[in-house]
Design goal:
It contains ten helices and eight strands. It is α+β, with helices and mostly antiparallel strands. Among the domains are: 89 residues, Alpha-Beta Plaits; 60 residues.
Length: 314
């Protein structure tokens, strides 16, 4: 009987074991987490941790959480590399003092140099100091032609003095750009508030804030435009003075003709001085004439009275 019953028990045991195995497999499958997502921050800049296994044995893998997270990450990378990608904003200035044999011609040559290099003349003066011609010219040339302009200008005469300066305005330019973008965003917000303003008081308040913001935008934009002009075009000022050769021969030389000319010029100077002194004495001594005439009349009267007293009586 035991053997007979064992034939019926063994199949049921096998069925029960198989059922338990199926239940365990199903439970393990349902309890295994498919994906575990962690997002960091209010901006959604996070990553998704994928814990699903693979045939290669990788148990975990970092992947972008979403397309917006990838965009923010790319933006952060661009911002971090922004200073290295910006062109340097250099303000270049120079001042030259040249001694030239012909000031007028060198003045025209400096203007031609500016035109040939793609620049222009921003300011110029030309005049005479006594018997000497002097000139000053300020030119603007593209920043990349700055050194070429200096080389050509030095050839116009003897360089008596040269002063050059380069100021890096990259940091200021970048800060102004960031400030301008923030002000423009604020302006957009105020425009939105203005559309939704419910009463006159709100409208006036928003318009006042909007006017202040636009004024700041104009100031920042003006400074940016000025830096663009100063960095795109270098400024070079050239002062031209007459050379020693052009003005030194008139008073120099030791020949007979030069000596006679200098003596004649000196005699003219002496005569001019004497005539000037005589005219000055006459102009300032006119009041002595009436006194002299009065004194002479009194002297004659006194002399006549003295003669009458000495004369014997008739």
């Amino acid at each position: 009987m035991y053997a007979h019953s064992s034939r019926f028990v063994h199949p049921w045991i096998r069925i029960a074991v198989a059922g338990v195995a199926v239940a365990l497999i199903a439970g393990c499958s349902s309890s295994k987490p498919a994906n575990k997502s962690t997002s960091g921050g209010a901006g959604g800049n996070g990553t998704t941790l994928n814990t699903s296994g693979s045939s290669s044995g990788n148990t975990g893998q970092l992947a972008p959480a979403s397309s917006s997270s990838g965009t923010n990450a790319s933006t952060d990378t661009n911002v971090a590399s922004l200073p290295s990608e910006l062109d340097r904003k250099i303000v270049r200035t120079a001042t030259l003092t040249l001694r030239a044999d012909n000031v007028a011609e060198r003045f025209q040559d400096a203007s031609s140099i500016a035109t040939q290099l793609g620049g222009f003349v921003s300011n110029s003066t030309f005049g005479n100091t006594g018997s000497k011609q002097t000139a000053s010219i300020t030119i603007r040339v593209p920043g990349e032609r700055y050194q070429d302009a200096l080389v050509q200008l030095r050839k116009l005469g003897d360089v008596r003095d040269e002063n050059s300066n380069a100021n890096d305005a990259t940091e200021e330019y970048t800060d102004l750009g960031s400030r301008l973008r923030n002000l423009q965003a604020t302006e957009t917000q105020y425009l939105g508030f203005l559309k939704n303003a419910g009463n006159l008081s709100d409208v006036l308040t928003v318009q006042d804030r909007l006017s202040q913001t636009r004024g700041q935008i104009e100031q920042v934009q003006g400074r940016i435009n000025l830096l663009d002009s100063q960095t795109n075009f270098a400024t070079i000022t050239v002062h031209l003075e007459p050379g020693a050769i052009a003005n030194g021969d008139q008073g120099g030389g030791t020949g007979p003709l030069q000596t006679a000319r200098r003596a004649f010029d000196a005699s003219l100077v002496v005569l001019l001085g004497l005539s000037t002194a005589i005219l000055a004495v006459g102009a300032f001594s006119w009041w002595l004439l009436p006194l002299g005439v009065g004194g002479w009349v009194l002297a004659r009267k006194s002399l006549r009275a003295s003669r009458e007293r000495r004369a014997p009586p008739a």
